[in-house]
Amino acid sequence: MKAVQFHEVGGPEVLQYGEVEQPTPAAGQVRLRVAASAYNAADNGMRAGFLPIPIQLPHVPGYDVSGTVDAIGEGVTGLTVGDAVIAFLPMDRDGGAAEYVIAPVGAVVAAPTSIPLADAAALPSVALTAWQALFDDGQLTAGQRLLVVGAGGVVGKYAVQLAKRAGAHVIATASPRSADAVRAAGADQVIDHTATDLLDALDGQVDVLLNLAPIEPEQFAADVAAVRDGGVVVSTTAFMATPGDESRGVRAATVFVRPNRERLAELVALVDDGALTVEVTRRIPLAELPALHAEGAAGRIAGKVIVLP
Fold first, then answer.
1. Are 128 and 260 contacting, i.e. CB atoms less than 8 angstroms apart?
2. How crowded is residue 93: how many other Cβ atoms within 10 Å of its Cβ?
3. How many degrees, rounded to 5, is the angle at CA 41 between CA 227 and CA 183?
4. CA gap 144, 167 in Å, rounded
5. How many other CB atoms sit within 10 Å of the CB of residue 260?
6. CA–CA separation, 154 and 303 (whole Å)
């Protein structure tokens, strides 16, 4: 089968497209015929060797995947060959940048039926990240005020949609390029971070601050003033510490996305109910994945890109 893999960590040039052996599912696993995998920034980090996730080389990237069940391992129940599914694959195992991939049955849920199967690869890890940041780590509830810094990205737009559905008042920062999309996702107020000081633009403190942007640590620490006493600061930027304020009881939490089959199934249901929109900005063939990694390393990727085998 065709796949993209790397035998050593390094720049995008270490990625190789070619023939590899087709995997066979073991007990508790299924093999998926890949409809698409999704590119995530963490794929770049693992390939470059600076993200501390233990992978075995050679490694196939792409931990978000959609496809159809192609073969079933011993002991697997509830799935049949031909089922359309999505999965958030274990990040330390081979991913979906291939024609076939092995998935533990506990990572697999039925795919949305309201969108193309390939596009559904854009959902798993980013939607789970948004949910866990808001409700598991941020403990956001109806009637609270939420500030999303960097809402124009993929996770940000999921976060805005989910927060509005939960009954929160959502304030978001975005560039002029993404402001309309953030408003369309449901933000009550959009602040242009390129032209306006965040603290000056707020009309009061918030209960939860969710940071999704690679801002300077000094700026992040200053933004904590936007959070009320007893509130919480949540961040997905694991490369720097999330600041809080113990003197005011402001809690700090850093999000590391966690597999959750039941929650992923709930997110699929929201998509099919029309309550959550899956956005795909580009679709590329598998052979072009090394070039996409080069774009990612240069910070030139906007929106969600899926990879078609």
1. yes
2. 16
3. 50
4. 8
5. 17
6. 6
Inter-CA distances, 206 with 210, 228, 229, Å: 10, 6, 9
* pTM score: 0.96
Q: Tokens 């113990």 sit at which residue?
A: 246
Helix axes 261-272, 124-131, angle to 10 degrees: 100
Two structure tokens written together for 218: 């000094």
User: d(Cα 14, Cα 91) in Å, to the nearest integer?
Assistant: 19
Q: What is the pLDDT of residues 75-119, one digit of tens each?
A: 999 999 999 999 999 999 999 999 999 999 999 999 999 999 999
Reported as a pLDDT band with limits 50, 70 and 90, residue 306 is: very high
Q: Give the number of other Cβ atoms within 10 Å of residue 153's Cβ.
A: 21
pLDDT tens-digit readout, 33-83:
999 999 999 999 999 998 888 999 999 999 999 999 999 999 999 999 999
The answer to whether 65 and 86 have CB atoms below 8 angstroms apart is: yes
Give dist(CA 144, CA 146) in Å, integer.
6
